[in-house]
């Protein structure tokens, strides 16, 4: 088992060395960072001084000794003097000089055009930076409240304990895994290389970033609202799904007919200790499910159908995990009434960033799977390895969609919102709390989630608290805290505090005595339909109810014992439903997205890496 998991980690480190992470994790100037519950990060890499040559292939050596004639105008498949099928005589063993790099970039632009049937509006400069420089300039400059927000949300995911700084973990992930990114505000691409003097270009990574530039030129993806983890992954369903489908078609052409600078393993990646795979798997979801989502539309409606999705991007990760729900099952805008005591407050995040978090179906599924990976496969308290992997018809692990984010405990998700709570001393003690309200399509779906979450708490040593309904205490370890699980109808509300007594201070009515009646929402908490705030909307934070839900929900505790046994599960789909309470919260003043670097070969590499884990499970 240990040797098999070592192979998994080694494979994922290779993935990290040649691939990139989603946009908000890529180093970019502050104006490039998404307005999001993710931290803004900065890098002071300078803009490229010059754009690529207007006749790049005329200056570069070609394989047949001469370059084809330039066309009249600017047709698809030709850019800056290079045709998509030109053979450039480049010896990558000694790296690429400026002339060779210009030619490779121009030809790659032409190839992206040829595959995707979209014309670039303008050339995008490409800059090469070393991994050392990239790491040095990768910093998440944030306020005290911003740091507390990040710590609480990843602690709520049971991935980063109170003894660890979540910002530092994210910086390590970024420095180890980014292979390139596109900056829409500077309209440039940065490729991270182990050798900047003579870079050995990976044409697949380059094509991914060039396509993100093309997406921004044609569809203004930098304007997408991506202000939470869930919305970032949801919108990336089209951004990265389209990009990775193009990459797949690009790679097929390279294998069959084109002369390409294919990926090479490079030394100096982040290494096993530098990558937190829980966070990694959360952000990987659109790269696994996105291409499948886009390919389904492409097969039905061609590129025109895919182009139309940019006008109505996925509203949730649920819609890319279950493509049949796209346009059919809109998520509930979960609303929330603050009932905390005077000592507890939600830390305010400045610069228009929302003060809550959302993880969606993808995040919740990853939370339930993470102990399996964190334990090196020794424990599978909720979701086993084989339930988290996708297989092809011949029984091999899929290289196109390797990870399965659909589980029976999280299918039926309809919305979630997590509010961190802090005191005046939290910055020094890191003692925090949170209220995480989730809404499900049906009461049965909510019950399934409570079951899976109960298994997770049990794994971390949670003990039921005498005389308090649905209240548990983890006595020690990184998640030593008190937890209250309130299941009412289609709503599950999780409350966390350092002590059992503190639960009711974070959320009035939490941790009720068995005869007290428990937490209840106020009579004003009625169900009124709203939508998630976007470019033209204001958050009203009133709960929504689908047709047929005639009752006003109250958070009466439902006695649900903590399960003693773990297990692995598959998914089944639920139907519509919701619940909530009303009180206005901060809506984002501005939403931007930083485009997005792509994984390119990530699917294949993850598949190879996880195959080791699968082999270990079969021993």
UniProtKB/TrEMBL annotation:
<protein>
    <recommendedName>
        <fullName>PGF-CTERM sorting domain-containing protein</fullName>
    </recommendedName>
</protein>
<feature type="compositionally biased region" description="Acidic residues">
    <location>
        <begin position="570"/>
        <end position="585"/>
    </location>
</feature>
<feature type="region of interest" description="Disordered">
    <location>
        <begin position="28"/>
        <end position="78"/>
    </location>
</feature>
<feature type="region of interest" description="Disordered">
    <location>
        <begin position="509"/>
        <end position="600"/>
    </location>
</feature>
<feature type="compositionally biased region" description="Low complexity">
    <location>
        <begin position="28"/>
        <end position="60"/>
    </location>
</feature>
<dbReference type="InterPro" id="IPR047792">
    <property type="entry name" value="Hvo_1808-like"/>
</dbReference>
<feature type="compositionally biased region" description="Acidic residues">
    <location>
        <begin position="547"/>
        <end position="558"/>
    </location>
</feature>
């Amino acid at each position: 088992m240990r040797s098999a998991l070592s192979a998994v980690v080694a494979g994922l480190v290779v993935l990290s060395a040649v691939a990139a992470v989603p946009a908000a994790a890529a180093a970019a100037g502050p104006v490039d960072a998404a307005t999001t519950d993710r931290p803004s990060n900065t890098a002071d890499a300078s803009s490229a001084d010059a754009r690529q040559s207007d006749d790049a292939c005329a200056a570069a050596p070609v394989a047949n000794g001469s370059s084809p004639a330039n066309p009249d105008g600017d047709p698809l498949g030709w850019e800056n003097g290079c045709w998509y099928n030109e053979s450039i005589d480049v010896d990558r063993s000694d790296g690429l000089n400026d002339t060779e790099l210009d030619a490779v970039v121009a030809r790659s632009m032409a190839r992206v055009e040829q595959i995707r049937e979209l014309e670039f509006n303008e050339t995008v400069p490409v800059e090469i930076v070393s991994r050392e420089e990239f790491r040095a300039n990768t910093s998440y400059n944030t306020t005290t409240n911003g740091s507390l927000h990040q710590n609480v949300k990843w602690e709520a995911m049971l991935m980063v304990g109170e003894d660890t700084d979540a910002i530092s973990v994210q910086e390590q992930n970024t420095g180890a895994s980014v292979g390139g990114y596109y900056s829409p505000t500077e309209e440039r691409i940065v490729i991270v290389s182990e050798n900047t003097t003579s870079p050995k270009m990976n044409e697949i990574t380059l094509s991914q970033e060039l396509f993100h530039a093309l997406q921004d030129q044609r569809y203004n993806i930098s304007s997408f609202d991506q202000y939470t983890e869930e919305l970032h992954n949801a919108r990336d369903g089209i951004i990265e799904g389209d990009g990775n489908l193009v990459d797949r078609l690009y790679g097929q052409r390279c294998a069959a007919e084109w002369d390409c600078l294919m990926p090479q393993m490079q030394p100096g990646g982040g290494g096993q200790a530098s990558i937190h795979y829980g966070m990694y798997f959360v952000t990987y979801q659109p790269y696994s499910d996105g291409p499948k989502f886009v390919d389904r539309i492409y097969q039905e409606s061609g590129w025109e159908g895919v182009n139309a999705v940019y006008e109505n991007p996925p509203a949730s990760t649920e819609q890319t995990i279950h493509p049949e729900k796209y346009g059919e099952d809109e998520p509930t805008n979960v609303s929330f009434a603050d009932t905390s005591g005077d000592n507890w407050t939600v830390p305010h995040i400045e610069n228009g960033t929302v003060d809550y978090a959302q993880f969606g179906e993808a995040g919740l599924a990853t939370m339930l799977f993470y102990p399996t990976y964190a334990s090196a496969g020794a424990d599978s308290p909720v979701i086993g390895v084989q339930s988290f992997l996708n297989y092809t018809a011949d029984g091999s692990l899929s290289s196109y969609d390797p990870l399965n984010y659909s589980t029976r405990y999280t299918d039926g998700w309809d919305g979630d919102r997590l509010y961190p709570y802090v005191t005046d001393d939290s910055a020094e003690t890191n003692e925090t709390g949170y209220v995480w309200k989730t809404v499900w399509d049906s009461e049965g779906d909510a019950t399934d989630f409570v079951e899976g979450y109960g298994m997770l708490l049990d794994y971390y040593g949670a003990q039921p608290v005498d005389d308090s309904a649905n209240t548990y205490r983890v006595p020690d370890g990184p998640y030593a805290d008190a937890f209250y699980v309130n299941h009412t109808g289609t709503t599950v509300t999780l409350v966390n505090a350092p002590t059992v007594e503190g639960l009711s201070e974070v959320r009035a009515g939490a941790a009720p005595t068995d005869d007290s009646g428990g937490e209840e929402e106020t009579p004003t908490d009625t169900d009124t339909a709203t939508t998630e705030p976007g470019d033209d909307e204001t958050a009203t934070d009133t709960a929504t109810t689908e047709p047929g839900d005639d009752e006003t929900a109250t958070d009466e505790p439902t006695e649900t014992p903590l399960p003693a046994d773990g297990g692995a599960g598959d998914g089944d789909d639920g139907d519509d439903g919701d619940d909530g309470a009303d009180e206005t919260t901060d809506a984002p003043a501005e939403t931007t997205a930083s485009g997005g670097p792509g994984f390119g070969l990530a699917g294949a590499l993850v598949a190879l890496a996880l195959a080791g884990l699968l082999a270990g499970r079969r021993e």
